[in-house]
Amino acid sequence: MFRLSYIIHLSIYWLYSLFWYCFSKSETRNNFDRKKGIEVAKNVLYIQLTLLPVFSLPFIFFYDLYLPKNLKIIEIITEPLVKFPLMSLWEDILFYHIHRFFHTPKYYKYHKLHHSWKSPVPWGAMYASNTENVLVNFLPVLTAPLVVSLNIYFLPVWIFSVTISSVLAHNGDGKHDLHHQTFKGNYGTMGVCDWLYQTEEK
Ligand SMILES: [Zn+2]
Ligand SMILES: [Zn+2]
């Protein structure tokens, strides 16, 4: 399941990016900076092949130890309907607070790289410093299955859903793209924390 999740992450991330590059008609695609696009692609691929597997190693151990491995019929319903929304909420809470913390002047240096592109491309989702990738991108996603005790068979589905939502958030016309342009508001992933703190921007 770990290897499958990793393969799904890589495939979805780059297939969607390629699809966007070939077919998107957004303004970002029309003004695409090719040199920067290649630099970002190299950087992200390096992170995906080094930092991501290394940081995931302890989680593979914990998943193996704590996540249920026998799939009950009822879990085919409970996992997507109950645990997935809870995991998304958990991700939103962690992502929002750590991301907002990185917008404070003292800690912005860790978030600066991700904001170096005002109109990011889908594969720029993981274009960030190592500190940011670990704390904002990896930690909320990888801890979520442990928090809800997700059945291990649903781990690839979870990885699929978070990968597709992160590339979609950088496709040129969403709320997170607005965050890249204005540097404020829309700090979260699913909007719950933005709604609670009234930091939603439209
Ligand atoms: Zn972003
Ligand atoms: Zn930001």
Explain this structure to me?
- Helix 4 runs parallel beside helix 6.
- It is built from nine helices and no strands.
- It has 202 residues and is mainly alpha-helical.
- It has one domain.
- It is globular.
- One zinc ion binds next to helix 8.
How would the blueprint of this fold be written?
Blueprint: H1 2-23, H2 27-30, H3 34-49, H4 51-66, H5 75-101, H6 130-148, H7 155-168, H8 175-182, H9 192-196
Helix pairs in contact: 1-7, 4-6, 5-6
The number of domains is 1
Which consecutive residue ranges, at least 5 long each, have pLDDT under 50? none
Give the C-alpha Rg: 17 Å
Characterize the overall form.
Answer: globular
Total beta strand runs: 0
What's the story with the biggest beta sheet?
Answer: none
Structural class of the helices, strands and pairings?
mainly alpha
What small molecules accompany the polymer chains? zinc ion
Say what oligomer this is.
single chain
Amount of beta strand: under 5%
Helical coverage, percent range: 55-70%
Query: How many H/I helices?
Result: 9
Separation of termini?
Answer: 38 Å
Helix/strand order: HHHHHHHHH
